[in-house]
Structure formats: C-alpha cells, structure tokens
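Side project, low priority. Logging it here so it doesn't get lost.
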Amino acid sequence: MQLITNETASTEFGPRRDLRGKSAIVTGSTSGIGLGIAKALAASGSNVMLNGFAERDTIERTLDEFSATYGVRMVYSAADMSKPEDINRMVGEARNAFGNIDVLVNNAGIQHVEPVETFPIEKWNAILAIDLSAAFHAARAVIPEMKERKWGRIINIASAHALVASPYKSAYVAAKHGISGLTKTIALETAEFGITVNAICPGYVLTPLVEKQIPETAKARGLTEEQVVRDVLLHAQPTRRFVTTEEIGALTVFLCTSSARSITGASIPVEGGWTAQ
C-alpha cells in the first residue's frame, strides 16, 4: 500500500464543499468506470483508495497525478475481490490510511459471454464472486463504522443488466440482478443511520471490459465485431452512443452529497434509454 499526500493544492471549487475530507474506497478502479469514479471523487475533495490490477508504474502515476491535481490523499490496495480475506484487509488498510471510510463504491467486475449450456462452471463461480459477493463482503466490513458515525454512502455499480437481460450473459445478468436486490436490502437495514445505498445501472461504456466482450459476442452470435458494436451494443441504446465514465462519476459524486440524502435503495439507469423500450 502506498500513501501519497498533497495538502497544499486548492480545494475551493466544484462540489468539494460536501466531500472535502471524506474518504472513499473504489473497487476495480485502475481503469474504466472505476477510474472515472475515483477521479470524480478526488476532484470533489475525497481521499480515495484505488483497487484493481495494473502495472505498478501506471498505478503510481495515477496516485501522483490525483494527489497533485486535487490535493487529496491517495492509496492503493491490490486486494483480490474474489477473496473475502483480501476484502477485509483492504478495508483495514483504508481505515489505517484515512481514519474513516465514508464512501464505498463497489465497482469491480468481470464478464464472460457464452451460451448457458457451454458456460464454464469456473467462469460462473468467478463472476458471482467478484460481481456480487464482493459487494456483500465490502459492505459488511464498512457498515458498522458508518452506523456508529450515522453517515455513509454505499454505491454499487450494477448495469442495465440489473434491470433487463441479454442472451449469453447468464452469470453477469444473474450477478447484476443480485446487486439490485442486495442494494435494496442494505438500504432498508441502514435507512435510519444516515446511510444511503444505491445502485447505478450503466449501459454500454467503452471500457476494457466492454472491448473484451466485442469479439466474444461476435463469436457467440456469428457476427463481425463491427456488427456487434452497431447492431448489438449501440442498438440497445436509443441515444446511439456509449455512456461515458465522466457521466457515471458525476452521478456517483451527486449520490454522495447531502442533496441526495433521501435517495436510497434505488437502481438508477444511465443507459441512453435502453430500459425505456
């Protein structure tokens, strides 16, 4: 774990007034949606723990950049989200670094695309562990201190697939539907403790995870990769464009502010109108 501090940078802009001095864990945040969320939280004044897999030099550059640009403390955990003991250790490291954990963003996720009758059992188990169970273990670890302080924000990054299904994604769809139910349950259990728990349900964002799906989906459906982008991915979204990581980051920050304190137990679609059809 690496701790970087820069206390001299300006903190007087944007929505920092609500999040200055708060501390967040964002799982799966070395690239894609998670990195966009981490950047938005840091820009809003929150200290952030990154988590995920990347080259060490890349991680250190990100820590240095965010710390210098936004004047926040940044740490990194290499915890494997498929292992409950790693998750508990990650939470302990964040607590040691920051003192409090105010915000938990469960974003880590993996995907595999294949018909159910040939779907590998090990892929099913891995997706359920990382995309669903990890959120349970992380929330379980941070809720006691949030209850004690009577303030906390838990944001689960689900998917439009928490609301609708697509073929060849049995494990992912099952996990994301599970995230929606888990979100509602924890929201009810924590509603009187100043804690909100919500799920963000993005449509297709052009992240490394989605880029990896393109050839897999092409193989499963007998299409070209260009057809997958045009006729499968963006066809699902009436806006005909990919959702951006900046849009997901901005919504995450809003859900952490006092203006969103009455929003809890919600699964919020950010998917270009996909689920309106």
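Brief comment: The first strand starts at residue 3 and ends at 4.
Revisit when time allows.
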